[in-house]
Specification:
Helix content: 40-55%
Strand content: under 5%
Structural class: mainly alpha
Shape: globular
Order of helices and strands: HEHHHEH
Number of strands: 2
Length: 110
């Protein structure tokens, strides 16, 4: 699948849920390319900003959009990697701050 096609498809699916792509389309396309690469590598789209183990069950929490993104967007206006953001974040109505890692250390298997 081509990145632009994936972008359009996901935009239609995620926006009604309150997930908006970051206005920085260059960053978004880089992250989407990495997601597609991870799909080829692991068979699932693990978050490109986290280390995937290659074990789908272990990594279920970081399959994009990750389980932490709901809390991250509610609290910070952005997910961990800033792929998905709130409308207010994109409109600069809220401060863009660092989103801390919520994934428990025991889930990270190297």
């Amino acid at each position: 699948m081509e990145v632009k096609e994936y972008y359009e498809r996901m935009k239609k699916v995620q926006e009604p849920k309150g997930y908006y792509f970051n206005n920085d389309t260059e960053r978004v396309f880089e992250l989407l390319e990495a997601l597609l690469f991870n799909k080829e590598r692991y068979g699932y789209m693990s978050c490109p900003c986290r280390l995937a183990s290659g074990d789908r069950e272990n990594d279920r929490d970081i399959i994009c959009p990750c389980t932490y993104s709901v809390e991250d967007i509610a609290e910070y206006g952005s997910c961990y990697c800033s792929l998905y953001v709130s409308k207010e974040w994109n409109e600069n109505k809220i401060q863009h701050t660092y989103v801390p890692e919520r994934r428990p250390p025991e889930k990270i298997k190297i």
